[in-house]
Amino acid sequence: MSEKTPPQSTEEQRRRIAEARHPDPFAFLGGPHGEKRRVRVYLPGATAVSVEAGPELEHVPGTDFFEGTLPADIPRPWQLRWVDGDGGEHAGYDPYAFGPQLADFDLHLFGEGRHWHPQNFLGAHPTTVDGVAGTQFGVWAPNADRVSVVGDFNGWDGRRHPMRVRGGSGVWEIFLPGVTVGTLYKFEIRARDGSVVTKTDPYGRCYELRPDTAAVVAAPDEYVWGDDAWMARRAEADWQAEPMSIYEVHLGSWQLGDDGEMLDYRELAHRLVDYVTARGYTHIELMPVTEHPLDASWGYQTTGYFAPTRRHGNPDDFRYFVDHCHRNGVGVLLDWVPAHFPRDAWALAEFDGTALYEHEDPRRGEHRDWGTLIFNYGRNEVRCFLLGSALYWLEHFHVDGLRVDAVASMLYLNYSREEGDWLPNIHGGHENLEAIDFLRELNTVTHGEQPGTMVIAEESTSWPQVTRPTWLGGLGFSMKWNMGWMHDTLTYMGEDPIHRKYYHDHLTFGLLYAFTENFVLPFSHDEVVHGKRSLLYRMPGDEWQRFANLRLLYALQFTYPGKKLQFMGCEFGQGEEWDDTRALDWYTLDYPLHQGVLRITDDLNRLYRKLPALHRRDFTEDGFEWIDCHDAEQSVLSYLRKDDQGRMAVVIFNLTPVTREGYRIGLPDGGVWREHLNSDAACYGGSDVGNGGAVVAEALPWMGRTHSAALTLPPLGALVLTPEGDESS
């Protein structure tokens, strides 16, 4: 008899229940069954069982089954009373007296890949059914022969609470009366080959603290938010024309408590908000706080796509974090990882004994470099899972945007693969057509359902139209990390200034494509790990020159077209490479040169926010003009930033340690031009060479401009000028 064949005899059915192999336990247990209204209960370890206000059930000799006839005047559901082998008395409602709870409509949409909130019926949900409080469980495991809920309420015994499967949907469900918030649980799954695995809930909204991996029945979302003003503004905001300066944070190592342990979300909220508002950043971007088993993965190997990690507290603690940020005018972005997931046997990998969430063929289903598995974007239910996760963070946690990790690995079937180790698409190409469709749907759905939120791509190739609308053939992302600009700029700045004239195009080339996408300019965690050194120690020269170069680098980032991102520690010139096992080197702020880096970071943030010319046209060509990009011999660059109201800012860089007196630069207008920023100022640790705070433009044509001024360019210095009378001056 196959596992899927319904057992015929009562004895065979009992045996299959006791061996946790019955394909339809609701057809045998519970009841009442047939005209005789038979009730059957399976309670291992019980010595006597009765129905409250009804009969005592007969113990079937040699088994853990109890059976009897239910009087007609006892309605569903009925409560059982039983005595265990130690004489303990217990009472509880029979879970097999409850009918199916999941709506056919939900199952239908889920199967078609059109359910955007599958977490509303899958996972664990405290609820009341027929006046009885308990928890409704649901899990997708279409290739399983049997699925049971196991937990601390049933001794982790898979025989006690096998679930019912809902037709061809592959979804298993059961309502367990008396299971309350805080209960630990997993799903025990019997595969078709007879193997049994215990899996944590893919839709779990809370988990144990690592290294433990059970899901926790979470309370319904009843958090009282105080960010209504922020959320209303978010829905209407034109973020493309607003300043966006992002502070990227790893919560586990930004700061630690006095005991050396990680801080909780609530304390982090206050410390971080105070810090980033003092610096002038507009947003915090969190490296993944989705639950993950391994600290060293930094969260990029996710196992809990609907749960904030317990390392810092519970889901409401994380809601408090976001709420506090919003109340203080700080946006929150979250790194989100739909590209791959880890192989942990207790999580998504071969979830029901088969390659369910991943591809079965390793040429499609494995990331060789990372030792992880790739989602099967062609499977409807997997797309629902990922879409549901994305919307859940935006809706239930009020997160303002998602930064999608490793997009390039999703787009290309041959990403980081040798010839012969990948399978082409149906047209013979290397594009992952299913992933492309998923990304377009992701962006269409999130932007439609949550207006004003952002989805940002970490995409490292020249894939076209990443940030163009889907209806124009684009992928529909809000923004894309400009990895080319980042690599070229850091390569240039890492060269000794005497050689920089040979690398001048590294700073000018980026403007050839700067407006083909909506770009973020990132100096992220990836640039200060794995032997790359900190940004400070990637700069050449002696100590003074390293700090001057770092200030120059940040001045370039904050005045160049595009939104800004800095990883924690960069803002004060962290000297050591980032180490996720310890806090940042805050002690360095005792030293003047580090204080100077922090001060110029503050001033650049404020200048970027204050001058509309530096942010209102970040994504369009009419917001930028070269003044002179050709002076490679002296390593000097100058450009003009403009907004939509005619306001201007002129930016000049001297990328060598040579002071240049009387350097004439073309300007668009005459009169006084105020010096808003001089990166060589003494307050930053510079040599204080400059122009006394202002220059006067003469009616002397120069560099194709009607006016010009002779400037003193400080060594390894940047200047930002605006015309006097400009309302932002």
Automatic annotation (TrEMBL):
One GO cellular component, as annotated: cytosol
Principal EC category: transferase
Record keywords, A-Z: Carbohydrate metabolism, Glycogen biosynthesis, Glycogen metabolism, Glycosyltransferase, Transferase
SMART domains from the UniProt entry: Aamy
Keyword Transferase: yes
One BP annotation, GO: glycogen biosynthetic process
Residue ranges with Polar residues bias: 1-10
One Pfam match: Alpha-amylase
Cited PANTHER family: 1,4-ALPHA-GLUCAN-BRANCHING ENZYME
Complex and partners: Monomer.
Function of the molecule: Catalyzes the formation of the alpha-1,6-glucosidic linkages in glycogen by scission of a 1,4-alpha-linked oligosaccharide from growing alpha-1,4-glucan chains and the subsequent attachment of the oligosaccharide to the alpha-1,6 position.
Name of the protein this chain belongs to: 1,4-alpha-glucan branching enzyme GlgB
Source species of the chain: Thiohalospira halophila DSM 15071
Species lineage: Bacteria, Pseudomonadati, Pseudomonadota, Gammaproteobacteria, Thiohalospirales
